[in-house]
Amino acid sequence: VGLFETLETGSPSVEYLLMQWSKQLLLNSQLLQLHVPQVYGQQQQLTTNGPSQKCNVDGSVKIACGEPGLNATHCEAINCCFDGQYCYYGRTVTVQCTRDGQFVLVVAKDATLPRLSLDSVSLLGENGPCGPVDSNAAFAIYQFPVTACGTHLGAHLVYENKMTSSYEVGMGPLGAITRDSYYELYFQCRYYAMSIGALTIRHYANDPPLPVVAPGPLRVELRIGNGQCATKGCVEGEAAYTSYYKDTDYPVVKVLREPVYVEVRILERSDPNIVLTLGHCWATSSPNPFSVPQCPYKDDRYLTTLVPVERSPAVPFPTHYKRFVLKMFAFVDTTSMVYIHCSTAVCHPSNPQCRSLAPPESAVVSSGGVVFIEMA
């Protein structure tokens, strides 16, 4: 009976899978010729691929899983893939323990994205039978005694080892680049009086590399939406952000108490890991953002409403946008020219100051003039 157990460790990148009992491992004679003793320990699901992606293995590199003649039910029970004819390993990493004290480790190149570099896979020890016993373009197979390759002996006959896959760094005209994943896998064989168990621990030592970014100054723009509803059932607040006033349209005329749809956005950037923040926004009667009097957005909770920004074809990076709606009730007099200003900052979400109301190194962005009139 296989036992699958996930333990809460406080880190979503570490999984513990405890398995018992399996079938004899035989590799398809038409693919790779490898025969090992009777194997105990259910196959480990360590790939980041979904079920359909895991089993998408090219026929030329398939490796049979379990003993010949397994049906789909038994194949799925040992966490392998079934194509209607035979059982085979998916795009994952499999650890098995044999009754005669052997580790069997099957590593798929596509276990991670970016792919693993099979040539860089190593164990704790480099001497003896620590290299792959067989391989093809997509898989590497290791088999070695539990006492070899730097394996540590724990209490109650617990043998532990570690597999690592490093990455190759290539130098190009614009700098260094890598297309491989760094991967670590801790695995154990536990021998008891009546059974054999296998334990694997997956550990991601580093976060995935950040997307490529371009150097240079960041540009932020404040603009006012002027989209109109043209169909029945249209939501005015959503339609307003489908088009915007151009520079040549200013000054624009608004009626007092009419909603003003404001958007602040980052220009010419495609990095999903940067976030636009607003310190506060306010209005003045001159283009100078520091002139007085001012109508503060910061404390104007009743007249200003933040608008959530959802991903769409027009907005591929929602964190690059901030939207809000304001209604001007009175400002100096009913024909004043009003300018809207916001203090902005761009930061990485991992920075604790990214969420502060007054982030450091902020810049001020402003709108064109808006004339508010009182309707008779």
From TrEMBL:
Task: State if Iron is listed as a keyword.
Answer: no
Q: Which GO terms describe its biological process?
A: binding of sperm to zona pellucida; prevention of polyspermy
Q: What Gene3D superfamilies does the entry give?
A: Spasmolytic Protein, domain 1 (4.10.110.10), Zona pellucida, ZP-C domain (2.60.40.4100), Zona pellucida, ZP-N domain (2.60.40.3210)
This protein's GO CC annotations: egg coat; plasma membrane
**Pfam families assigned:** Trefoil, Zona_pellucida, ZP-N
For the keyword DNA-binding, the answer is no
Q: Which cysteines are joined by disulfide bonds?
A: 55-81, 65-80
Q: How does it sit in the membrane?
A: Single-pass type I membrane protein
Instruction: Report the subcellular localization.
Output: Cell membrane; Zona pellucida
Cite the entry's keywords alphabetically.
Cell membrane, Cleavage on pair of basic residues, Disulfide bond, Extracellular matrix, Fertilization, Glycoprotein, Membrane, Secreted, Transmembrane, Transmembrane helix
Q: What is its main location?
A: membrane
Protein name as it appears in the record: Zona pellucida sperm-binding protein 4
